[in-house]
Amino acid sequence: MLLSIILPVSCILFGQSGSIAYITGPSQASYQLTVFSLDTGETTAPGRGDCDAYPQWSPDGRSIAYQTKQPEGTGIRIIRPEEPADQAVAHHFSWNYRPRWSPDSASLVYTSRDDTSPLSCITVYSFERGEETFWGGEQRGILSVAWLPGMELMKALDPESEDEHASIALLDLRKEAEAHGLLVSVGLIGTPPKMYTDLFITTPSLATPVLSFLEPDNQRHIEYNVNPDHDARQIAYESNDGGDRELFVLGRRGITNVSNHPAADWNPVWSPDDSWLAFESFRGGRQGIYRVLVSTGNVLPVHVGNAYNCWSPDWSPDGEWMVFVSDMSGTPQLFVIRPDGSDLRQLTFGPFPALSPTWQPVSKHRQE
Questions:
Q1: Cα separation, 209 vs 188, whole angstroms
Q2: Hey, which of 67, 70, 268, 313 would disulfide with 277, CB 3.0 to 4.6 Å?
Q3: Residue 314 near residue 323 (C-beta atoms within 8 A)
Q4: How far from the centroid of its chain's Cα atoms is residue 132's Cα?
Q5: Strand partners, 300
Q6: Would you state the pLDDT for residue 16?
C-alpha cells in the first residue's frame, strides 16, 4: 500500500506525463509487455506474457509494437494502450524479430527468416495494405534494421573513386529512395570463412553497402546496433574498428569514433535534439550509463555504481530525464535520472526484473 502512494507522488514531482513501456516477468518464457503510467503511477500488462521482447513506441505515441512467441516461431504484435486492441501481424515467415516503426507510424520494419536458413531478410509491414513486402533485393544475413526518416544522409554517399558501377548504383538507390523511403541495416558480406558486416542503405529492390562507398578498401566489422538520429543526418552504430567495441557516427563529415575508450561501449540512443548519445560502457569498471556530446566527443557519466550495474537507457521526450535499468536495489528495476546525474529516483518496485524501457513519445493527440 505504501508503494502505491509513493509512486504517483514521485511521478508528479518530476513533471513528466505519458507512459513507459517495458518487459517484466519471473522468467524469459513468461516475460510480458507492461506499461507504467507516469500520470498515475499505475501499471498495466497488455502483452501476451509469452517471451515478450523489444517493445517499441510508434512515433505518434499511440501504439506499441513488440516481439512475442507464436505457435511456430516468433511474431510481431501491436498494442494500443488507449484502446482494447491487440493486433497480430500476419507473417510470411515463422521467425520475425525486433520491430521498428516508420517515421509516420504507418509501417513496421523487422528481420524475418524461415526454418530452412539462419539468414534473415528485411520485411516491411504496411498497416494500410495489411501485408508484408520484402526489401533489399536478394540481400540476406540482415542483423538489425531501422528507418531513415529522410534523405539528408544520402548527401554523405559521395564515392571517392570514379567507378562507373558505383556511381550508377548510387543513382539508382537515390531514385528508389525518393519514391519509397530508406532503411539502414547491418548485414553480412562475403562467404565463409571471409565474412564481415557492413552498414547498408536499403530500398525495396536494393541494398547498398555504405562503407564501401566511403572507404572502398576498408573491411571493418560492424557490431549489431544501428540507430539513425531523428532528422536522418547521422547514423550511430557499434564497431570493433580499433580493436574494441566503440560507438561511431556516420554523417556528412564522414565517420567519427565518438566514444574512443579501451573499454567496451555500446547501445547508442539519440537525445531528442540529436546532440547527445546515451550509451552503456564498462569504462568505470561496472556496466554504467554515459552520454557523449557528438559534436565534440566529450563523454560524461550519467550513473555508474561501484557494486551494481546500469543499462538500457532511453530519453524522455523533452530530454530532461532518462530512464534505465539497474540492479542497485537487488532485482533489476527501472530508475529515472537527470542527464547530468542528479535527481535519481526508483520508478518500479516489482518482484520480477523490469527490462527494456522505452519512453512514450509526445504526440499531437496527447497535447490536445
A1: 10
A2: 268
A3: yes
A4: 21
A5: 291
A6: 85
Please, what is the Cα angle at 186 between 66 and 159, to 5 degrees? 140
Cα separation values, 142 from 124, 221, 240, 251, Å: 13, 14, 18, 22
Contact 108/76 with Cβ under 8 angstroms?
A: yes
Please say if the pLDDT value at position 332 is more than 50.
yes
- Tell me: the pLDDT tens digits for 50-85? 999 999 999 999 999 999 999 989 999 999 988 767
Burial profile 310-326: b = 16 or more Cβ within 10 angstroms, e = fewer: bbbbbbbbeeebbbbbb
365 has pLDDT over 80: no
Q: Tell me: cis bond preceding 8? Omega within 30 of 0 counts.
A: no
Residue 145 has pLDDT above 90, yes or no: yes
Given this model, what pLDDT does residue 115 score? Answer: 92
d(CA 47, CA 97): 16
Distance of CA 163 to the CA centre of its chain: 34
Distance between terminal CA atoms of the chain?
33
List, as one string, the DSSP characters of 74-116.
EEEEEEETTTTEEEE---SSSEEEEEEE-TTSSEEEEEEE-TT
CA distance 348 to 3: 9
